[in-house]
Fold each of these.
Amino acid sequence: MMIYLPIAELSVNIFIILGMGAAVGFLSGMFGVGGGFLMTPLLIFYNIPPVVAVATGASQVVASSVSGTLTHFRRGTLDMKLGTVLLCGGLVGATLGIWVFSLLRALGQLDLVISILYVVLLTSIGGLMLTESIRAIRRSANKQPTMVRRPGQHNWIHKLPIKMRFKKSKLYLSVIPVFLLGGSIGVLTSSLGIGGGFIMVPAMIYLLRIPTNIVVGTSLFQIIFVSAYTTVIQATTNFSVDIVLASILMISSVVGAQYGVRVGQKLRGEQLRALLALLILAVGVRLAFGLVVTPSDMFSVVFAGAPE
């Protein structure tokens, strides 16, 4: 069954789009990520224009994140205070990212830059996460004690000023690194159409020392509002949000996220990180392959005055 996407200006199989949304929603709920890092490349693989894929992918992230956040809120694994600080930084970063997105589009370099940034981010972060996860799994298999931070032992982040107490996370921490982390994720959300959870989750665990059970729900909470803000701004400034495509993705991702949360609760932390790392690496390698392989059609026809 084919359906026409007015902004993307092409017809797609609705069942394939539904399947994409459900799968990404499932992974979002399982890993605590928005899923944009996977949805945007999938849409591009399916010949959706990158400009539309980035903007519309952000709207799908909203739906899957809301579904997952509600589940974590009911289970008490969401730090609202910490999430609010992350959100403030995210909104500032998203505003900057929208400006960069518009500038690159005006210069005609948006598609190439998006692809290159995705390859660099996904392969580097996926590789680091996979290495750490394998070490953790080996320690667990050999019944070696996990290295934990002893009381009174702090890194440079814990020495920064303007500290705030986050009771849910049991932390007394400077708001500066939290705000900057949220800001960097905001830039990525608005310029690449990703929720940024695959960066935020490991950063919150390893840099900020936030308990793993709190990280997932708090990450999703911040992603909701930053992605929603990005969607509205993209729609009003670049006119690149396809409402038909977004609606289909939202409906299917909400359903998938509910099942993903249930599965994620049954896996250990190091297992989840290893699976997420493999997924990130797979997407990064696929994008890199698309950049270097010779296309089947070396030329294309573009009509003068046609929208990007």
Amino acid sequence: MSLPSASPTHRRSVPPESRWSSRESGSGDLPVASAGPHRVVVLAYDGVTLLDLAGPAEVFKEANRFGADYRIALLSPTGADVTSNLGVRVAVDGDLSSEAASDTLLVPGSDLYPRTPVPGYLASAARIPAAVAGRVASICTGAFILAAAGLLDGKRATTHWQVTHELAARCPTCRVEPDAIYVRDGSTYSSAGVTAGIDLALALVEEDHGADLARHVARALVVYMQRAGGQSQFSAPLQGPPPRSPALRTITDLVTAQPRRDHSLGELAKHLSVSTRHLTRLFQDELSTTPARYVENIRFDMARALLDQGHTATQAATLAGFPSYESMRRVFARKLKISPAAYQRRFSTTRLASV
């Protein structure tokens, strides 16, 4: 696999209103970029996730069909070809150190580095070109490489929902946003898991050439310009391991087994024969939440599972113990930024509806 290379160029500053114009085509008016060449450098390394690398590159290549002039170069730390996570050999255009400044530096992810420390050579490979790039963007766990290079210190960022806690632990000064599809902090960008790299690349195209051109790219690739909701809608259930305290375990088991019961603070405290204050303190000390929020989370997870199994939204609300469909809808809107019906359409099945 290889991507087109190009000679180094300097970034031109183009006013937003002059970044595209229209041309006539058989399919209607198409936006045409009027900005000069824009050099995109993609960091390739052994173990890189192939879709992290290819997905955003495809967005930029597609934008060129509508008049943009992205020059894509695939570079490795040493200039040697690399092997992706799928075992596919990826041909590169050269090494990072021999290249002039890029307009955009993309750092794809790998499932290696949430599990192991980022090697020093790889962190350095990102740090050097990032210092002179117009903007730097990570895809999925590529954020761990940016963090190891010190490029996320004091910044907001995101990564795949499964490893946001690990990123926060490795980069304590970074404010990790676990629900974001992508995050911009100044000239530093980061995106969530895998296909979110396409969302980020579309956002970068829109930033360079306006919404009309980005919209044509999205339509050509059959993807959304902006997907509804955050990445929480893709995450596993919220509940972790059972509490250590026997008293608290009694309560959590009760809520899970009988979600439709009255689980108000007073009723839960009465069940344990403790004060409401003591029960609240137990939840806060061990689970870092309140009894009411824990009950809500249990019901929310159950409702998601019921929707996945094909129950209607009203049935899911009743079986999960929500007082009403409306109360469940409000929880979905707060946690996922989408309605229960929209969640079900996305995740209940891959089969197309019968015509």
